Amino acid sequence: MVLILEANALTKSYGDTHALAGVDLTIQAGEAVAIMGASGSGKTTLLHVLAGILAPDGGSVTLHATQPPLVISELGDAARSQLRREAFGFVFQQGLLIPELTAVENVALPLMLNGVPRAEAEQRAAAWLGALGLGGMEQRRIGQLSGGQAQRVAVARAQVIEPAVVFADEPTGALDSATSSDVMDALLGTTSARGRTLVVVTHDEGIAARCGRIVRLRDGRVVETRSKVADMEYIEGETR
Amino acid sequence: MKLLSVARLLARPAASGTATMVLPIVAFGVSTALLLTTLAGALSFFRWHGETGFLYQVLAILASALLIVPLASLGGSAARLSARRRDDRLATLRLLGATTGFVARLTVLESMVLALVGALGGTVLYLALTPLVGLIPFRGEPIGAAALLLNPLIVAGVIVGIGLLAGISAVVGLRGVIVSPLGVRTKQAAPRMRWMRVVFGAIVLGIAVFSVSHPGLFGGVAVFIVMLVVAFVAANAVLGLAGPFVIRLFASSALRRASTPQRLLAARTTLESPKAAWRQVSGVSMTSFVAVFAGSALATASSVSAGEMDAQSRVLLTDLRTGVYITLAISFLMVACSVGVSQASAILDRRDLYVSLDRLGMPVTTMNAARVRAVLSPLRIVAIGSAVCAAALVLPLAGISMVLAPVSMLTIAASIVAGILVVWLAAAATRPVLRRVLAEPAKLAE
Ligand SMILES: Nc1ncnc2c1ncn2[C@@H]1O[C@H](COP(=O)(O)OP(=O)(O)O)[C@@H](O)[C@H]1O
Ligand SMILES: [Mg+2]
After folding, report:
1. B194-253 pLDDT, tens per residue?
2. pTM of the entire structure?
3. Residue-range domains of chain A with CATH
4. In this structure, which ligand is nearest to the CA of A37?
């Protein structure tokens, strides 16, 4: 296994709230990791620190996808912003796509931000939309898509730059269970199924069960880590 | 009682962020101050009597008429801004079980209160400005602060009127929202302009040009001036109809050519609502108009050599110039305020989107470039397009040599450049708002 992302002794506080109280986590390339926990347990904060959206108060985050490894937690704002657009993909709970742009333009945007010419960016974007079952919807605007379709556009937008890691924060939180499963198919099919890395925050045990590993947080600490192979039965028992 | 207590609860800064409350108040305040100052200036001319007094009064009315457009657009953006506050909490209130009627009353009440607070603040600002504005000379001496004090009844009327207008626009705006209580905006295909409007506009413009170029048909100076006012109003109406259409044409071509994210975003933003883009910069179309008219008028006047002019004419010429510059300056101020206010509110309105783009790694400079471009591209088209339209109107009056005279061209060019600069400054001034939104993503609804 190849290490891709490593977090050591992460802490992050908001006033008196210790959102992260010493989190250690290693993520292997090609893994799908689900982060679970009650509301307020620090899942989003952890995801944001791992992805370089937030700087931790203490501890470090290291990306091993580059040579030499990059200590994300030591980068300044601009460098972290650049890292996010060049190396990471993001899917949020609400697609947060740009309503004025068409589906294909939304997906092409991250490529254009990285300097890819528009025609080529839109071509690659259209290919991703096609791969996610959205062929023919390239010119639709976001308001003309269903929730599940919009979320798949968001998945395409996250994948289009071929990121080292995709981060998703409750990507199915606003969807019904059938649509959730479609979106999760899209997310897993484009990441771990192709050897890419996925970190997903979710409340849904069923969705977490599809990931290779589950990390549970409570009060900003990792209280449990289970790999699928070892805990298949446990997980199934839990969902029943 | 319940209405008031809920209103008070929602008015607490912590409930929704102070900016959403302060911005409409500021916008209403600035609108009120400018309106009262303009009104006071115009009315101060009515102290004078006699033939030249009448001329001054006509010119004052003309200048005020020109300022109605940017003022209306500033007032409109203030009203829309306070209406936006509603969308955030409407869903919550409805989910808490508030009836539609209750929510409606609350919204109208709130809009009116914000407008009244702003109007009162604007009145104070107007009073504070009178000593300064009073320094402006007309007829060879400063107007004086005293001459600018409006009858308290007029001031009260303006304040009440602004409160009522805000209430009415809130009622009108509510109709669209209550239909979908969750306030989920589903943006469908970009709206299309109707060809009919443009044809209609062209006909009106033709009539206006004809009536201005044949003053003899109607006879009498007073009638001529009335015709001039009508031509202004008509031309403005035409611009209002054609403006969004032309903006859409240009934005479509910009969209095809867009090679960077900011160009793409700006073109799409403009296409989303050419009308909104027009509204934001339409005040400048009037300044372009004024600049062309004034430039030609000044060129015509100065073509008469100073020696041949009597003292009275010389004073009149100076005052004409002063009046032109004041009108231009006030309209620039109004446009700048309305651009600043609507840009700030657009950022707050879409804070979750901006935060998400920041998380994706879009540089803040790109976001700002897209925003500024979305204002400036329509502005350029509008400023230049309006100047061309105005020249078409002026040509039959003053002749080509006057339109192309150095004084004239200089006034026109300076006005357009100044207008664009002021608007750019106003748009750029909202950068801190975006920076603050990105620095406090905590307020983002999870
Ligand atoms: N920007 C912030 N300001 C203040 N407190 C915050 C902020 N973000 C998160 N918190 C607090 O930190 C804790 C962890 O939050 P979060 O990571 O969002 O949890 P989760 O995603 O698991 O629901 C919560 O108690 C939350 O209230
Ligand atoms: Mg969360």
Report:
1. 454 455 556 656 655 665 566 555 445 555 556 666 666 676 677 778 889 999 999 999
2. 0.79
3. 31-53+81-236 (3.40.50.300)
4. 1
In chain A, which residues touch B (CB < 8 A)? 14, 44, 48, 51, 53, 78, 81-86, 88, 90, 92-94, 96, 98-101, 105, 109-110, 112-113, 117-118, 141-144, 157
Q: Measure the CA–CA gap between B76 and B110, rounded to whole angstroms.
A: 16
For chain B, count helices (H), then strands (E). Answer: 16, 2
User: Which candidate from B259, B260, B360 shows the least CB-CB separation from A110?
Assistant: B360
Q: Which two tokens stand for residue B222?
A: 């007073």
B269 close to A (CB below 8 A): yes
| Maximum pairwise Cα distance, chain B | 79
DSSP state of A64: -
- Taking the C-alpha atoms of residue B284 and residue B331, their distance in angstroms, rounded to an integer, is 7
> Cα B90 to chain center, whole Å?
28
ipTM: 0.88
Strands A70-71 and A197-201: unpaired
Amino acid at A120: E
DSSP class of residue A176 equals -
Hey, is the C-beta of B268 within 8 angstroms of any chain A C-beta?
yes
CA–CA distance, A208 with A95 (Å, rounded to integer): 20
> Closest by alpha carbon to A131, among A190, A72, A214?
A190
